[in-house]
Amino acid sequence: MHSTAFKYSHLAQKLRRHIASNGLQPGDRFPTEDELVQEHGLSRITIRKALSLLEQDGLLSRKRKVGTVVNRAIEESLDLHLIRGTVLILIANARAEMGEEDHALSSVLRGLERALADRGFTAQIVGLGRDEQKDRSRIAQILHRGDIEGVAAVGNCVDRYRDLLHAVPMVNSCTFVPDAMPWVGLSVEEATFVCVGHMLDQGHRRVAAVCGPWVDSRALAGFANGAKRAHEERGVPFHRSLLYQAFDGESLPDLVKDILSAPDRPTAIFGEDWRVCRAILQAAEQLNLDIPRDLSLTGIGQNTQYIASSVGITAYVPDNEKTGEEIGRILAGVVDGRGGPKEPVFVPGRFIVRESVVAPAKELPVVRGQLPENPEERGN
Description:
alpha/beta, Arc Repressor Mutant, subunit A, Rossmann fold, 3 domains, 6-stranded mixed sheet
């Protein structure tokens, strides 16, 4: 039912654009039902329902022996709200709740909303993930309203709802890996390659990479491939044992403390996002390791730039506003029937060098706080 409602409401929007873009005036002939069936490949019932919507708006008149004619012109510059409908922007509730901390999400949304507004769309943001049944009901109700022309999925939040959204033009974005086309986002492999490569160029030879438990196996392969390629292009051996991932429920600072407490500990470490970088900073502080003198650090993400720290973190920062603009541009093309790219659209970011990376020290400092304080216990 929701798919059918979307089809005729979406066709009605396309027919409104046809009136505006062709400058049709009152009394001008409008395509017949047969012509519209042939052109759009939809059922006659869907065509009739779409024409009825335009009649209700006062845009068309259907008269016996005369056919369908334009009843009112649309000035595109004045009546954009008639020409374009609404784009549904779906985000994960976990991201929505980051609030002021999530600078990246707000930048993506800012660019996306601007791109949609420039093309005459309005936007509605819906957070998903707290209650699947309620989310399904909300999506169904919104689609039944009849003015949704497309969906922009920001992050990994729509897999459970694709059966409801399958008939709606959609652009997927900002996931670790391209999961469905069209897709817009950051290449985690390229970002890792740049970050790890920078630390190798500074002379580090034991560079660890740490990922959080939210990274799936395909994304983990992207991070691993980026680190491996950085080593191979510089002729440095790549140690698979230096690639770590936390498991669900594991404390990230504790994992990093274990990594940094090993006798042959890494001299540099890469964190895949701001949460991992923050955990690295916490672990280093607890172990009395100075960044960057004792440990160099790089990471990914705009949020990484805003972590409270005495040392600025060198990071690969996605161009999130550009990403949002690309989502809007591509989605508008899909809505207008031009289709979308069949390959992922990777939006390059910027590598921002700050104070957290220097050449490694000749001698590694002793990690304090790990040996028992009682000398008798040390000997056991």
